[in-house]
Design goal:
Structural class: alpha/beta
Strand order of the largest sheet: 1-2-3
CATH topology: Rossmann fold
Helix content: 40-55%
Number of domains: 1
CATH architecture: 3-Layer(aba) Sandwich
CATH superfamily: Cobalamin-binding domain
Distance between the termini: 11 Å
């Protein structure tokens, strides 16, 4: 199941939706170049909400030079232009937390 929260969500809105929907994965897409400002705020909001076990992935126009720093923030993967659907799905399947009920 995918929960789409729409464009222009604040870090707090993203964390609130993730908590309310009990998500396993948060996918972030950013095209504005504000990833080095927004991603730390999003990760802090998720941690503050007790969502330390949620897999966070990102996509968009994130320069290669920033990707190591983005991963150091706790974002597990960065999917840039040219990433195939199979690559993204495979990463999420291999890395998303497994719930005790098997879902």
């Amino acid at each position: 199941e995918v929960i789409y929260t729409g464009l222009f969500q604040t870090p707090e809105m993203i964390a609130s939706a993730a908590l309310q929907e009990d998500v396993d994965v948060v996918g972030l897409s950013i095209l504005s170049g504000a990833h080095m400002t927004l991603f730390p705020r999003i990760m802090t909001a998720l941690r503050d909400g007790g969502l330390d076990d949620v897999l966070v992935v990102a996509g968009g126009t994130i320069p290669e030079d920033d990707r190591e720093a983005v991963r150091a923030m706790g974002i597990a993967a960065v999917f840039g232009p040219g990433t195939t659907l199979a690559e993204a799905v495979g990463f999420i399947r291999d890395n998303a937390p497994v719930r005790p009920d098997g879902e």
